[in-house]
Amino acid sequence: MSPPQALPTASSLTDAGIAHAATNSNTASNTTMKNGSSTNGNGASPLAGLDASKVITTLTSNPRPVPEPNAPEVFAQKTCTDHMITASWDAERGWHTPELKPYGPFTLMPTASCLHYATECFEGMKLYRGWDGRLRLFRPDRNTARFLTSAQRIALPAFEPSEVEKLVAKLCAVDGPKWLPKGREGQFLYVRPTMIADDEALGVNVPKKALLFVILCFFPNLDVSIPGAVEIKKPGLKLLASREDSIRAWPGGFGSAKLGANYGPSLIAQGEARSMGYDQVLWLLGKEADVTEAGASNFFVVWRTKEGKLQLITAPLDEKIILDGVTRRSVLELARTRLPNGWSGSDVPQDEQLEPIEVIERKFTMADILEAVDDGRLLEAFAAGTAFFIAPVSLIHFRGRDIDIPLAAGDSGKYAKTIKTWLKNIMYGKENHEWGVVIQEENIAPQ
């Protein structure tokens, strides 16, 4: 008798399902044609690929005023620019011609898949007005690649990430000059590419229709002030550690995809934290209280090992619990390339020279943090993401204990401060770097 075969794991079933869905929605596993289209996986007529070069532009006839940088509508996070990008997809044709058109509401049937089955994913990016007067995006190729990963995770259609990047750039080129004008150097607009399934069939099935859209929105600078939070004198984020029965993501789940389904269930915990005077939730997992993310941001600590080695630690990606953050990736790459021998550059004051640091991606627990605090080995902690950017953490409340985190540079840790400076220099054009993608502005005539 042959030995019984092992059952497939949940993770392998998920991966297989994603691959199967990809084959039927013109992904890289299909046969790509020269015109950007692809077959539907069985040799039938080709599906049209997403093609940004064909975008149809219709400018608004009702332009709206641009709010001042600190106006109430900026903090309300409801004000968008004059235009948006849309592109429809269906299972028979593939991608339709993209449009740049006036910003406005959509029409959805009450049975739309996204309203019932959370078939929605999105990205978060920023358009920066550099100190040199130019508009830039920061590593948009990483956002659009992750956008594809998220879409595939929930059976939405695939696309060539570079085509979405071109559509984002087009909208930024048209609306950026007016809504983020010269004279507002050092400021940004929030960029939100989104895809929803607008298939009107109510059955629980892979969607046969989808809508991709891109908008630009005013957003407050969250790494400086956090609207709605109760002020506590010490600067830095104050985090409330999640309870054991409150879980944001789990191994083999979908925490690694940027889905709306990840955010709604976390809002109660976030509201509770805010009502108690904390800025965000520090999400823990399991009885060991593995540290995962801070709100919707990646979380880092700087500590010394018991042997005295300095380390920058963050949770790993291998179990698909946390998001592969673009800011996270950038922090790790900068630390690995610029800090292995320490840093004594002109951008760091003499009393803030940085020691060499080892960069580690691995599991760590609240017990590890507590031990490091009690031993005097924890030097700093910070959150990293597009919205909060690099936000130093000054306090963690865990199981009835307030854990004070040092801020060696006054309002930040030394490493967080230096890495944040490097990133800002790239984003705002003070450092010429391949991560800062310049947008060629289109100065359209007033309507």
Q: At CATH's second level, what is the architecture of the largest domain? A: 2-Layer Sandwich
- What Rg is obtained from the alpha carbons, in whole angstroms? 23 Å
Give the beta-strand count. 19
Structural class: alpha+beta
What does the overall shape look like?
globular
Order of helices and strands: HEHEEEHEEEHHEEEHEEEEHEHEEEHE
CATH topology-level fold name of the largest domain: D-amino Acid Aminotransferase, Chain A, domain 1
Distance N to C terminus:
79 Å
Percent of residues in β-strands:
15-25%
Low-confidence stretches: 1-10, 27-36, 225-232
Helix content: 10-25%
Question: How many structurally independent domains?
Answer: 2
CATH superfamily of the largest domain: Aminotransferase class 4, branched-chain amino acid transferase, N-terminal domain
Oligomeric state of the chains? single chain
Report the major sheet: 10 strands, mixed
InterPro entries: Aminotrans_IV, Aminotrans_IV_CS, Aminotransferase-like, B_amino_transII, BCAT-like_C, BCAT-like_N
Biased composition (Polar residues): 33-43
Cofactor: pyridoxal 5'-phosphate
Catalytic activity: L-valine + 2-oxoglutarate = 3-methyl-2-oxobutanoate + L-glutamate; L-leucine + 2-oxoglutarate = 4-methyl-2-oxopentanoate + L-glutamate; L-isoleucine + 2-oxoglutarate = (S)-3-methyl-2-oxopentanoate + L-glutamate
Defining traits:
alpha+beta, D-amino Acid Aminotransferase, Chain A, domain 1, globular, ten-stranded mixed beta sheet, D-amino Acid Aminotransferase, Chain A, domain 2
Structural commentary:
- It is a single chain.
- The chain folds into two domains: 10-217, Aminotransferase class 4, branched-chain amino acid transferase, N-terminal domain (D-amino Acid Aminotransferase, Chain A, domain 1, 2-Layer Sandwich); 237-427, Alpha-Beta Barrel (D-amino Acid Aminotransferase, Chain A, domain 2).
- It has helices at residues 10-23, 72-76, 113-117, 140-153, 161-179, 267-275, 326-338, 366-374, 414-427, and strands spanning 56-57, 83-90, 94-95, 99-102, 120-122, 125-129, 135-138, 188-196, 209-217, 237-241, 280-285, 290-294, 297-304, 310-314, 358-361, 378-385, 389-398, 401-404, 436-439.
- The chain has 447 residues and is an alpha+beta fold.
- The model is unreliable at 1-10, 27-36 and 225-232 (pLDDT under 50).
- It is globular.
- The chain is 23% helix and 23% strand.
- Helix 4 (140-153) crosses helix 5.
- Strands 1, 2, 3, 4, 5, 6, 7, 8, 9 and 19 form a ten-stranded mixed sheet that branches.
